Amino acid sequence: MIPKKTKYRSIVLGVLGMIMLAGCQPEDSFENNGLTDPNLDASFTITPVSGTANRYVLEAQNLNYIFSKWDIGEGAYQGKSTEEIFLPDAGTYNITHIAVGRGGESKSASQELVVAESDPNAGNLVVGGKFETDEDIAQWTILNISASGASWTFDSGSATITASDWNQQGIFQAIEVQGGKNYAVDMSVQGEGSVDTWFEVYVSTTAPVQLSDYSADGTRIGLNTWAGCGGTPFSGKLSQLSCSGSGNVVSFDEDTTIYLVIKCGGGNVGAITIDNVELRGTN
After folding, report:
1. Partners of 141 in beta bridges
2. N or C: which end of the chain has fewer CB within 10 A?
3. Prediction pTM value
4. How many CB atoms are located within 10 Å of the residue 77 CB?
5. DSSP class of residue 129?
6. Best CA proximity match to 261, nearest among 162, 138, 165, 175
7. Owning domain of residue 67
């Protein structure tokens, strides 16, 4: 007869052995345990909206997942399984659907969409606003305000301003607009945070003059550390981050040439980078 103490010790050792054996199993032993979905599918269709230009419906083909993310070229955002998108600018877009399933597992699928023509109402009037090529960059003119101490630099896909010791510099381009129409100006902007800094956007019929400051018709949108924005790291649309200016929508009484001016300066400007600069009709 086995003593009780020895019998219990054998049972405990056996259970511990089973636990250790399970703990040493490779991760793939959990496959098909219900925590992840082996049939996760991110495929989708793109359908033009009938009777309207530049609008498309994105529709996921398999709904066996928790939620969708879509990326139409401006970063992924959480959306619905069916999304209607508006692409006002002509070009080739890489559309990506990300299906997120159980356990955080995700799969993605992409399609190329060619938009043949810009929307006549909301197409971007800024040329070279993505700074992607030498031709894009050539559309912009440097506005020298201070003799030195501030500088815009261009990279593939962005433009960056740095400045110090209360110097400033701008960039600008001329644009033809229609009278009696509202236009909205905006851009993507990011920075590491600056001290004693202004970043200002102007839309005016007054032409800039080299080696002269620019403030025609007042700031439309901007960052200003004294007003409470731009002093800490930031990233997003300038219209949403702005804490200075009279608003990003502007109109003119008659057809005319306007100047889009972006200037920045200050005591210690941590690099501020812009992309996707746009001026679009809103009516």
Report:
1. 172
2. N
3. 0.72
4. 11
5. T
6. 175
7. 44-115
